[in-house]
Design brief:
- The protein is an alpha+beta fold.
- The protein has eight helices and nine strands.
- Strands 1, 2, 3, 4, 5, 6, 7, 8 and 9 form a nine-stranded antiparallel sheet that branches.
- Helix 3 packs parallel to helix 5, helix 6 packs across helix 7 and helix 7 runs antiparallel to helix 8.
- The protein is elongated, with a radius of gyration of 26 Å.
Length: about 350
């Protein structure tokens, strides 16, 4: 038995990481030499001899900082891998070592975002930090960041410092899934919208199903219905979708609501029904059936004899939050979800539940 075979790992990683060279240099400032060398694909291994490095230099007699703005050509989920050759004083030759240098990384979906300061026009580090100060050291290979981006601003912060960088490779983290479904029509713009929507959903299929690669890492059931339909149409059967629905169920033992919101538990019922309609997976329906029927009964307990309901909260989505429209929207969702629960009760041969939910 090998050492690794005897270890109890948390889970098997189903995502892959591909590394990308920047496609172009957008801007630079301060003293930057040989910036174009970052566009050259190179082996991802540092060596004592590296002829094609880019140098960012902060002179000892200046407050100006060296920076560069890279474009990777398309948006993806992941971070950056920095291969540093040397960190030393600004006046010495590359290779004269300092312990480390401080570098600021600012990821952005747009050029303006990558150039923005935290706090500027809403720029923030909520959930998945997009602006960070990190240490780099000579002869190092370090990875930073986990967010959605296309552009990256790299700024040398340390004074009187020369930083020689071999590679700034984009680390693209995703599930390698074939696109089984497709759509084409005579309108090129509509085709582009479809392709972008399918790719956006693909990016959100990470550890489990996320609602945004720049947001928190929760499984938000209130956002999962259109994602479920897209996954089924574009990618076919993906175990991660099953696991996401099961994860949400296990994290919300009754009477707890999914993600803390009644509407999101209602969405789960709709997702389960529509998922079954798309797959005909009797085993998955059976695995979730007891919980679905119990959830349906729990939701029915908020309805009085006159058909009025009094849920603890009426959140549907942010545009209608704390408005009368929110209650109207949740009311409509309630009806759709209970109809779905009644239909599933019929498939599960639970006549009492089917009558209650109808």
């Amino acid at each position: 038995m090998s050492f690794l075979s005897s270890q109890a790992f948390l889970q098997q990683e189903e995502r892959i990481t591909q590394y990308l060279s920047p496609k172009r240099i957008i801007l630079s400032g301060g003293t930057v030499t040989n910036a174009e060398h970052l566009l050259i694909p190179k082996p991802l291994q540092i060596d004592l001899y590296e002829p094609d490095v880019t140098a960012l230099i902060n002179p000892a007699d200046s407050m100006e900082r060296a920076w560069i703005l890279l474009d990777f050509g398309f948006e993806f989920h992941g971070g950056v891998r920095l291969l540093t050759h040397g960190v030393g004083p600004s006046h010495s030759r590359p290779g004269n070592a300092l312990a480390e240098a401080q570098v600021r990384l600012t990821f952005g979906e747009s050029v303006s975002e990558a150039l923005s300061e935290l706090g500027q026009k809403g720029a923030c580090n909520d959930h998945s930090p997009r602006c960070m100060t990190v240490p780099v050291a000579g002869l190092s290979d370090l990875s930073f960041g986990q967010t959605g981006f296309r552009f990256l601003r790299i700024e040398l912060l340390s004074p009187d410092c020369r930083w020689t960088l071999k590679t700034a490779a984009g680390a693209f983290v995703y599930r390698d899934l074939p696109y089984q479904g497709s759509f084409r029509c005579s309108d090129p713009l509509l085709n582009q919208i479809y392709d972008t929507a399918a790719y956006t959903c693909h990016l959100n299929m990470q550890n489990l199903l996320w609602d945004g690669i720049k947001r928190d890492r929760l499984v938000w059931i209130g956002d999962a219905h259109p994602e479920m339909l897209t996954i089924r149409a574009v990618f076919g059967h993906v175990d991660m979708l099953d696991e996401s629905l099961r994860f949400a169920r296990e994290k919300a033992p009754l009477p707890r609501f999914m993600n803390g919101m009644p509407a999101y538990s209602l969405w789960w019922l709709l997702i389960l029904r529509d998922y079954y309609m798309a797959t005909g997976d009797d085993a998955f329906l059976a695995q979730n059936g007891d919980y679905a029927m119990a959830l349906g009964r729990h939701m029915a307990s908020f309805v009085d004899e006159d058909g009025n309901h009094a849920l603890p909260a009426y959140f549907l989505d942010w545009p209608t939050a704390k408005t009368p429209a929110a209650e109207a929207g949740v009311h409509g969702l309630f009806i759709l979800a209970m109809d779905a629960a009644a239909e599933m009760a019929g498939w599960l041969k639970d006549a009492e539940a089917a009558a209650l939910f109808a």
